[in-house]
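Researcher: Before we compare anything, I want clean individual predictions. No alignment, no superposition, just each chain on its own. First chain goes here; please echo the sequence and then give the structure tokens.
Model: Echoing the first chain and its structure:
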Amino acid sequence: MADMNLDKPAKPLLTYGTYPALALVTAVTLWATLRHNLDRNAVIGVLTVMTIAVVFAVERLNPLQDRWSMTRQSLIDRDLPFIGLAVVVEQVCTMGVAMVAAAVMPRTGFGPLGRIPLIAQAVIALMASDLLWYAYHRAAHTFSRLWRVHGLHHSPSQLYVLMHQVFNPIDLLVSRFVISLIVFKFTGIASDAAFITIAVLGLQQTVSHVNSDLRTGWLNYPLIGTQTHRYHHAAEGRGNYGSVVPVWDMLFGTFIYQPRRIPGRLGLDDPASYPDPRRFHVVLAYPFRRAAGTTAQ
């Protein structure tokens, strides 16, 4: 199917208002949490549920492409097992990071980064975490063995918020344990800077997978959203390997930004080259099988 171009939005309030509203709510919630010393973990949980609920509703009210939408079959036959697995893996990773940090690191910030303003710490943490993810992510699209892990996330031919959790747990271990441990615990940033970083990560990673006509204009340059991340899921061509900030894509020449264009097809260039993601146990075992004939995409 050929690429399509966007026209005037059918529902301008949702198109232009959804992301600013979510960003404002997130910012106010972060401010209130720090000011009134609210439970950080509970706040992250509330923000996550709120963001998913809002964008899920917006997807139903204002879908970008009907063919990208969630169906009952895609949710039950493919997504739900991975959603459950992701919840378990992320909780295990969170506990693992906390246990390692408690054993070897002080609770407060330390070193040069621990002495700079909190917002500056959070910005540096975002940049550092996205650099590490960019390196891993691009390698996963380059080397066949890593592609056997990461290709699962690209095997769906749809793009919607709940599909975001269709990941191999190895990907999650890299992002939620290895990268989190390095950035949040070994750089010296304060725990509140990590809290801010996690909230921003959650917002941007959720919004970037939304099947809705969300337009954010110039904000696509400092932050990755749905207008840029959908190109990463296009079947032909790859780019935009960053998760939250596009600066590393810009620096290394992989940034794609064509806000009026809709990819003609999502998913794998050659769907037959990867196991059907509905075969849960098969795709989880796939990285450990012989790699003959596997080509990264």
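Researcher: Okay. Second chain, same rules.
Model: Second chain and its structure:
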Amino acid sequence: MKKEKEILNKNLSPEQYHVLVERGTERPFTGKLLYNKKKGSYRCARCGNVIFDSKTKFDSSCGWPSFYDAKKGSVKFKKDFRDLMIRTEVVCAKCGGHLGHLFKDAPQTPTGNRFCINSIALNFKPEKKKQAKRKPLKVPKPTKARSRAKQKEKTETAFFAAGCFWNVEEAFRTMRGVKETIVGYMGGDEKKYPNPSYWQVSTGKTGYEETTEIIFDPKKISYEKLLKKFWKIHDPTQINRQGPDVGKEYKSMIFYATPKQKLLATASKKEAQKKFKGKIATEIRKAEKFYRAEDYHQKYLMKRGLKTCRF
């Protein structure tokens, strides 16, 4: 048995050994399988034992891959008294490798369970694609040209930074005429940080701001109306902060996508200044490359039935 474990351990990287053998924990939001949405099976990285099916994986926003059920007989449970807590440890039933912990805090799942698992403790095997049977080609019938009313709607894009992007996105998301909202990062050092992460941006050293991209139908809502909403949802006189959120990534910014937006934003800022005693600190800059934020940030408040994260 000892020799078998030694053989299994030889195939592990130092990081995997730390988790699977020494019962360590990887840093949150760093695992390569955290955002994996492909169909397949998750196996113990130490012995290859099949532990989870992709069907049971769900987003719990905890920073580690989460599953609501494990394959029957694939895991064992132990009491874990480390770190002055009592937790249920999950180990591989075949090799005893440490996988993570089990929590009963997921009422939105069929089981109510959340297997919080270290990504590095697992290997993913994608499901084999079945070859689809070829169907005879159907010759489409000639159709009349679509009317202009049925053609694809023309949209425009706006970019605003006004503190925590969870709040900003929720404020614009429900406005009539807004087609889509996406949170991300803009305005930073693209050479040094070509694909910024939330944790890099939160250091305040990257130059990026938490930004919300708003795709809207100009026939249903004007850019001027979006600007009015922008001034209403935050305090533009605050510098590098919004309420309890402090840092350069929370500064007030308008990134214009067109020369017309620049003119409208500048005029709107002058008009808004009349309503504030302090000097408006909002910067107006040309839009740069927009980097979409991690999936767990998208529609964050909507997914939790909240209107704001400021209480």
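Researcher: What stands out in the second chain?
Model: The domain at 2-126 is CATH 2.170.150.20 (Metal Binding Protein, Guanine Nucleotide Exchange Factor; Chain A). Additionally, The longest helix spans residues 259-273.
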